[in-house]
TrEMBL record:
This is GMP synthase [glutamine-hydrolyzing] subunit B. InterPro entries: GMP_synth_C, GMP_synthase_B, GMPS_ATP_PPase_dom, NAD/GMP_synthase, Rossmann-like_a/b/a_fold. Its EC number is 6.3.5.2. It catalyses: XMP + L-glutamine + ATP + H2O = GMP + L-glutamate + AMP + diphosphate + 2 H(+). ATP binds at residues 28-34. It holds the Pfam family GMP_synt_C. The keyword Electron transport does not apply. One of its GO terms (molecular function) is GMP synthase activity. GO terms for cellular component: cytosol. Keywords: ATP-binding, GMP biosynthesis, Ligase, Nucleotide-binding, Purine biosynthesis.
Length: 304
């Protein structure tokens, strides 16, 4: 994108023109919603309430991180962990899980929007989200859910025409910390799409720890477009002298331009071995670690 400053100026003007009342935005801590929150805050100041919903499906330390970074905005943090786990209980189908998370978001949002008297919703939808949802690949929950159900006067999507790398450029120009501008994408439904089958608290604890280890080992050193761990199922292993039925964790690291296609990264064997060793020794009840070689297509980046 050639004219970042012009984009910023024009979107602030447009937000000011489109929003004639109190507005809310769901802040996830990712680069998309953060950019939108800053643009909207510059446009309408305290008429904006950013809401961070702690779904319990977030990465390790995420909630504390968000509170610190956005402490100068009117940030509202909602603890909705129990609601999300309840909504996901018994759900094994990937699309139903996505819808369940989307609906739990809607319910939280409706409550908060009503309390605040907010008539406008700002969303960090970007171009690839629209293409993939319209193409019927997956229902990205920030596109498929909120707008149709909540009776807002207006939905504003300031970065709906941008690709991810363009959003990052805007983030840098807005002065957001590198921690946000260079942040890997993280899906709206959170860790629920990194657990095959039903989501439980135990699986969430395992996959959250595994994600933290993978990020520690790979993000700085290899700057992948996206890297994470997913929990597959249980398999037989042996720990000490005892046979165990432990979790299988898959590690994924991809390079990509915009998430529409992706290549599995060729990582040094020693690094992969270190990740395996840390995951199996630091997380109880994990007995096997795999590395995913599949490009997109035929796989998607996430496991569900
Ligand atoms: P896939 O797995 O479809 O992912 O190859 C492409 C990019 O989109 C992210 N992703 C999502 N983001 N809601 C989101 O906001 C979703 O439901 C969702 N599913 C996937 C994924 O992490 C990758 O960056």
């Amino acid at each position: 994108m050639v004219k970042v400053d012009k984009f910023i100026h024009d979107s602030i003007e447009k937000i000011r023109k489109d929003i004639k009342g109190r507005a809310i935005i769901a802040l996830s801590g990712g680069v998309d919603s953060s950019v939108c929150a800053v643009l909207a805050h510059r446009a309408i100041g305290d008429m904006l309430t950013p809401i961070y919903i702690d779904t319990g499906l977030m990465r390790k330390g995420e909630t504390e991180r968000i509170k610190t970074i956005f402490s100068d905005m009117n940030l509202k943090v909602v603890d909705a962990k129990v609601n999300f786990l309840t909504a996901l209980k018994g759900q094994t189908d990937p699309e139903k899980k996505r819808k369940a998370v989307g609906e739990a978001f809607i319910r939280e949002f409706e409550k908060d929007a009503r309390k605040l008297g907010a008539r406008y919703l700002i969303q960090g939808t970007i171009y690839p989200d629209r293409i993939e949802s319209e193409g019927g690949i997956k229902s990205h929950h920030n596109v498929g859910g909120l707008p149709s159900v909540i009776d807002f006067e207006g939905i504003v999507e300031p970065i709906a025409d941008l690709y991810k790398d363009e959003v990052r450029e805007v983030a840098r120009a807005l002065g957001l910390p590198k921690e946000i501008s260079d942040r890997m994408p993280f899906p709206g439904p959170g860790l629920s799409v990194r657990i095959i089958g039903e989501v439980t608290e135990e699986k969430l604890d395992v996959v959250r720890e595994a994600n933290a280890i993978v990020e520690e080992e790979l993000v700085e050193q290899f700057a992948p477009w996206q890297t994470f761990a997913a929990l597959i199922e249980k398999g037989t292993g042996v720990k000490g002298d005892v046979r165990v039925h432990g979790w299988i964790i898959a590690v994924r690291a991809v390079s990509s331009r915009d998430g529409m296609t992706a290549e599995s990264m060729e990582l040094p064997w020693s690094v992969l071995r270190k990740i395996e060793s840390r995951i199996t020794s630091e997380i109880p009840n994990v007995s096997r670690v795999l590395y995913d070689l599949t490009p997109k297509p035929p796989a998607t980046i996430e496991f569900e």
